[in-house]
């Protein structure tokens, strides 16, 4: 329990929140709300007769996300460590449940949502965070043994494989790739031999290849990626529409709400392709703002990881930062034709309750790591403590 | 505690691990940098063509079809109008079950379900379900509440006078293009200019004109005013129809022409059809035979032979020709007359319609001059009505003697009914051939005169003296001894000529026993105001033009003459009063004695007219109902002024464009119906 932590007595003091990180996250969420409304109003009016439909839902999710963020910050990342296994088990159960006929909802040929009255959950979003928490915990616990193939590499690969298979059954290629990527990031940081990582990537290639070749829609996405203009009316439709969208924006954009591509030309304008609408309506300036905000999150996240007083904090901060950064980069790359279509959302911005709540909760954990040890009282104390600890471990390594 | 191992402070990240984390952070930041670089490329370097590509799909040239112009008769009565009707379309992509949708739609619309389904499957985003649907059909489809179904207004042509002059006016297809007749000939001006707007459109193809675009500036089609008179057209069609039906004939045509101007007052074809309700069965009735088809006209041509011979002084009025007692061998052929005659003067030849006599007159004239005169009367060249497919007819040079002989009585050559009427118009008009025309004006919605047809003299064919001589001879045709006593009228002097032609048999290369009976009359003979030609094709009861066609002439003339305000040649009202010496039809300046006799107790129509004479000098009409007051048109736009004038049976003559700044005669003047009113238009500065 909390008393187990060395300076548990000082926890009455509110954790020192990193204002820059918090500001970046809240800015993205706010921008997301604006853009979700701008990009969905016409479609919502047309399909549901209520142009505010998606905005209300996203606002609700943002409210819940704020609560999740506050709770995560308040509880502190250290105490989350002990829930690593239970959370992973819950994530696995959800991933299994979504595959059960009657529970999972089929949308666009994929079962990705468990629908309850009023809410629907996307298990893959939960699984990503659970996977980061579990990996961080596992790697921190195993310490220097992670370098060993049988202890540090194989078990994680096995769990990852299990999760990936579940994701692929939905199918959700994007989440599967994210899970694998996060594992590689964390294993790399933990010190797993590069040869293992490179080797496993090479090993995955044939599977990825067959996965692409054998699935018509994935193959179409791949060919669309290679030459979207050649397949403009078919598989390249989304990408070319997205490119036209972003290109139309120019330096300053057409003005908020004045985008035309969302008028049914661009499918999923408020989810996977919301970046295109940002590019169209807010121009290069808007794109720069979004990229900068993600850059700030990466910067502050990595800073928190480096400043963490113990490996778990480092892994957790790195994992969460990577989850946000990876999805952001991939989503934007897809929108600009730099990567094949994945189905990954733009963190904090795209419409989607599960994703937003989980990400804001994760941001809360990241803020918690950035705040350092709750016992430190202030950030400087925590840093000094960490420096001492580093010197100790450096000595140990030198020995 | 197990958990503590993971969060122990002593396990702070190693330097090597810190380096790796730092490396990963740098990786993400450089990836974001790459994203930014790509964004710069798209939004700065490629923004131009990407924007063009995008605009290409949501900016659409939206065609706003202009309202098709109307067709009026000479008095402004609409003969063809455009009305807006709903057309039903569907976006097939919005339907999940096209077969069911097609089934649901086909039933209330009376469409073939399978055909409709096939069309819907083929179309991606747009398919007509039914164009120009009735209001009931629209209501039925609306009630179905099928998703993706839309309605759009399309102009539909409507002919308020139904069958009237239908063959002349022609037809318009569902696509709004003229298919036939004047609708085709004047398609460009009637169509107007569909305005093209750059409008925004969403991916569903809906028009989105929400971005502050100007109001649609569609340009309405121009209106076409005909020389036709609805009333005369009606009378003509009625009389023609009766003649054809009583003779059990297959078809008929009639032309009423103003010989002084060449204006076609009526152009009728029988059988008739209703252009508002076409059915495939009567496609033969669609043809404007009177203007398009040529036929061998027969004896009506004898007048031209006589006129030519008189003009060339080859024949004098009292010269007599031996008519071979009804049978004359020309080469291997024999020409017959219906009744045997011995010696006939030119006048008698026309009166009894002697073929042999006409042929002998032609011989006096010679082949070259015969052909030349026919050409001068306008045969072998298009009359110039500007109708698509207008017939030309042909007068081949008569090499053979028999051809030379038969051409003298109108066989072995072809002409259209309009040509025959126009040629008689030359005789009626003192020897000057006027170009016949049916379109008086084409006026665009701003009042700009696009076409302003005026009477055009084609040429002087014969001298006025010759023309009068021939018309005087033709007056004897309707006498008791003539071929057409049935055309004689009590009130008006009539000059006319019958024709009973044998129809050429295209199969047997000879002449069949089928006939074309015709009568052409000039009325009143002393100063003809109308040429009326009746042609009855293949009459069964009687074959002679004097019997079959002449009564129809009389019926038309009896209605047309008072209608045109022509004073009777032989006054029946005031028999005791002396007939004015002046030529009737010209402005009458009644003698003082007559005027005093009329004004007072006698209250006939003439008296009323004379009473009016005293109030205004400009009254030139003897019939009271024939005069109108010129309306005040100042400040009106051209079109409104034209409509106003046509409404009171005045003829507008516009110059300039914009609004009326001056008019002649001035407002309030009492003038004769049909008087030209000159309007000076100018645009406001």
Task: Outline the fold blueprint.
The complex is a heterodimer of chains A (399) and B (685).
Chain A: H1 19-48, H2 53-75, H3 77-80, H4 84-97, E1 104-107, E2 110-115, E3 120-121, H5 123-142, H6 149-169, H7 173-190, H8 194-214, H9 216-226, H10 237-249, H11 274-307, H12 311-335, H13 353-370, H14 379-398
Antiparallel strand pairs in A: 1-2, 2-3
Helix pairs in contact in A: 1-2, 1-11, 1-13, 2-13, 4-5, 5-6, 5-7, 5-12, 5-13, 6-7, 7-12, 8-9, 10-11, 11-12, 11-13, 12-13
Chain B: H1 4-7, H2 15-45, H3 47-58, E1 59-64, E2 71-72, E3 78-90, H4 98-109, H5 113-122, E4 127-130, H6 135-144, E5 149-158, H7 166-169, H8 181-185, H9 187-191, E6 195-201, E7 207-208, E8 223-226, H10 230-246, E9 251-257, E10 264-270, H11 289-292, E11 294-295, H12 302-311, E12 320-322, E13 327-330, E14 333-336, E15 343-345, H13 346-352, H14 355-365, H15 367-376, H16 401-407, E16 415-416, H17 417-428, E17 432-434, E18 439-443, E19 449-452, E20 457-460, H18 464-475, E21 495-505, E22 510-523, E23 530-537, H19 545-548, H20 550-563, H21 592-598, H22 605-615, E24 627-629, H23 638-647, E25 651-655, E26 659-664, E27 670-672, E28 676-682
Parallel strand pairs in B: 2-8, 25-28
Antiparallel strand pairs in B: 1-6, 2-3, 3-4, 3-5, 6-7, 8-18, 9-10, 9-23, 11-16, 12-15, 13-14, 17-20, 18-19, 21-22, 22-23, 24-27, 26-28
């Amino acid at each position: 329990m909390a008393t187990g932590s060395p300076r548990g007595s000082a926890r009455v003091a509110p954790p020192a929140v990193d204002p820059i990180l918090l500001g970046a996250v809240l800015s993205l969420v706010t921008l997301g709300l604006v853009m979700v409304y701008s990009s969905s109003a016409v479609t919502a009016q047309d399909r549901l007769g209520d142009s505010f439909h998606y905005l209300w839902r996203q606002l609700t999710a943002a409210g819940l996300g704020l609560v999740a963020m506050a709770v995560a910050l308040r509880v502190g990342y250290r105490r989350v460590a002990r829930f690593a296994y239970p959370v992973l088990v819950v994530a696995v159960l959800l991933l299994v449940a979504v595959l059960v006929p009657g529970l999972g909802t089929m949308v666009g040929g994929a079962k990705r949502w468990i629908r309850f009255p009023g809410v629907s959950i996307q298990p893959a979003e939960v699984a990503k965070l659970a996977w980061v928490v579990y990996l961080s915990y596992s790697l921190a616990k195993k310490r220097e043994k992670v370098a060993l193939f049988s202890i540090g590499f194989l078990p994680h690969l096995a769990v990852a494989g299990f999760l990936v298979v579940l994701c692929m059954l939905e199918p959700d290629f994007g989440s599967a790739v994210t899970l694998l990527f996060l594992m590689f990031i964390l294993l790399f940081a933990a010190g797993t031999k590069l040869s293992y990582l490179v080797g496993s990537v090479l090993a995955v290639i044939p599977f990825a290849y067959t996965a692409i070749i054998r699935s018509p829609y994935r193959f179409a996405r791949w060919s669309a990626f290679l030459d979207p203009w050649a397949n403009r009316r078919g598989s390249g439709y989304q990408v070319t529409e997205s490119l036209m969208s972003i290109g139309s924006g120019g330096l300053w954009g057409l003005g908020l709400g004045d985008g035309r591509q969302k008028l049914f030309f661009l499918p999923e304008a408020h989810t996977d392709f919301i970046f295109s609408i940002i590019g169209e309506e807010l121009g290069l300036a808007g794109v720069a703002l979004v990229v900068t905000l993600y850059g700030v999150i990466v910067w502050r996240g990595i800073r928190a990881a480096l400043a963490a007083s113990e490996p778990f904090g480092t892994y957790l901060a790195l994992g969460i930062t990577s989850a946000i950064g990876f999805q952001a980069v991939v989503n934007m790359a897809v929108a600009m034709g730099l990567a094949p279509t994945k189905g990954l959302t733009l963190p904090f911005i795209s419409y989607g309750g599960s994703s937003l709540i989980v990400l804001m909760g994760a941001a809360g954990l990241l803020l918690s790591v950035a705040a350092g040890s709750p016992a430190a009282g202030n950030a400087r104390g925590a840093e000094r403590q960490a420096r001492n600890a580093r010197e100790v471990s450096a000595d140990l390594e030198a020995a | 505690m197990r958990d503590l191992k993971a969060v122990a402070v002593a396990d702070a990240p190693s330097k090597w691990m810190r380096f790796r984390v730092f490396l990963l952070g740098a990786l993400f930041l450089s990836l974001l940098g790459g994203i930014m670089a790509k964004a710069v490329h798209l939004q700065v370097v490629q923004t131009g063509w990407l924007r063009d590509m995008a605009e290409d799909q949501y900016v659409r040239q939206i065609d706003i079809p202009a309202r098709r112009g109307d067709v009026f008769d000479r008095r402004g009565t609409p003969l063809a109008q455009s009305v807006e009707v709903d057309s039903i379309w569907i976006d097939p992509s919005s339907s999940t079950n096209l077969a069911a949708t097609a089934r649901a739609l086909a039933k209330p619309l009376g469409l073939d379900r399978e055909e409709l389904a096939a069309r819907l499957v083929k179309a991606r985003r747009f398919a007509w379900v039914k164009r120009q649907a009735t209001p009931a059909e629209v209501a039925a489809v609306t009630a179905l509440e099928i998703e993706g179904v839309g309605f759009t207004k399309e102009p539909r042509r409507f002919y308020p006078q139904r069958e009237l002059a239908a063959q002349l006016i022609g037809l318009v297809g569902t696509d709004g293009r003229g298919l036939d007749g004047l609708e085709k000939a004047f398609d460009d001006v009637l169509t107007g200019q569909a305005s093209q707007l750059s409008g925004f459109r969403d991916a569903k193809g809906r028009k989105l004109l929400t971005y502050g675009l100007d109001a649609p500036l569609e340009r309405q089609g121009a209106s076409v005013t005909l020389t036709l008179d609805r009333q005369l057209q009606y009378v003509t069609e009625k009389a023609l129809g009766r003649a054809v039906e009583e003779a059990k004939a297959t078809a008929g045509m009639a032309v009423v022409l103003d010989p002084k101007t060449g204006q076609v007052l009526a152009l009728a074809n029988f059988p008739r059809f209703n252009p508002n309700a076409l059915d495939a069965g009567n496609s033969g009735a669609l043809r404007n035979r009177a203007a398009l088809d040529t036929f061998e006209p027969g004896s009506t041509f004898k007048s031209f032979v006589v006129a030519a011979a008189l003009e060339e002084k080859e024949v004098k009025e009292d010269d007599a020709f031996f008519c071979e007692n009804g049978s004359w061998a020309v080469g291997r052929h024999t020409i017959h007359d219906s009744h045997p005659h011995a010696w006939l003067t030119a006048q008698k030849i026309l009166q009894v319609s002697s073929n042999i006599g006409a042929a002998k007159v032609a011989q006096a004239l010679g082949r070259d001059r015969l052909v030349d005169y026919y050409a001068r009367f306008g045969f072998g060249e298009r009359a110039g009505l500007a109708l698509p497919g207008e017939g030309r007819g042909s007068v081949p040079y008569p090499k053979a003697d028999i051809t030379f002989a038969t051409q003298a009585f109108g066989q072995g050559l072809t002409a259209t009914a309009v040509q025959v009427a126009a040629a008689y118009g030359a005789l009626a008009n003192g020897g000057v051939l006027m170009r016949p025309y049916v379109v008086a004006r084409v006026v665009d919605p701003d009042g700009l005169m696009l076409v302003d047809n005026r009477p055009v003299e084609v040429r002087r064919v014969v001298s006025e003296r010759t023309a009068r001589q021939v018309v005087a001879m033709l007056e004897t045709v309707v006498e008791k001894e003539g071929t057409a006593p049935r055309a004689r009228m009590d009130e008006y002097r009539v000059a006319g000529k019958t024709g009973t032609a044998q129809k050429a048999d295209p199969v047997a290369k000879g002449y069949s026993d089928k006939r074309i009976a015709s009568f052409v009359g000039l009325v009143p003979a002393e100063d003809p105001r109308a040429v009326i030609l009746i042609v009855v094709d293949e009459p069964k009861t009687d074959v002679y033009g004097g019997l079959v066609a002449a009564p129809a002439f009389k019926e038309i003339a009896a209605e047309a003459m008072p209608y045109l305000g022509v004073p009777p040649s032989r006054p029946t009202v005031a028999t005791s009063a002396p007939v004015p010496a002046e030529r009737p039809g010209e402005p009458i300046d009644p003698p003082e004695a007559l005027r005093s006799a009329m004004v007072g107790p006698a209250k006939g129509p003439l008296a009323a007219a004379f009473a009016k004479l005293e109030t205004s000098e400009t009254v030139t009409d003897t019939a009271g109902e024939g005069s109108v007051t010129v309306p005040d048109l100042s400040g009106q736009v051209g079109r409104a002024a034209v409509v106003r004038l046509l409404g009171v049976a005045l003829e507008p003559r516009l110059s300039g464009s914009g609004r009326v700044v001056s008019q002649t005669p001035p407002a309030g003047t009492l003038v004769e119906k049909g008087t030209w009113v000159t309007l000076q238009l100018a645009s406001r500065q």
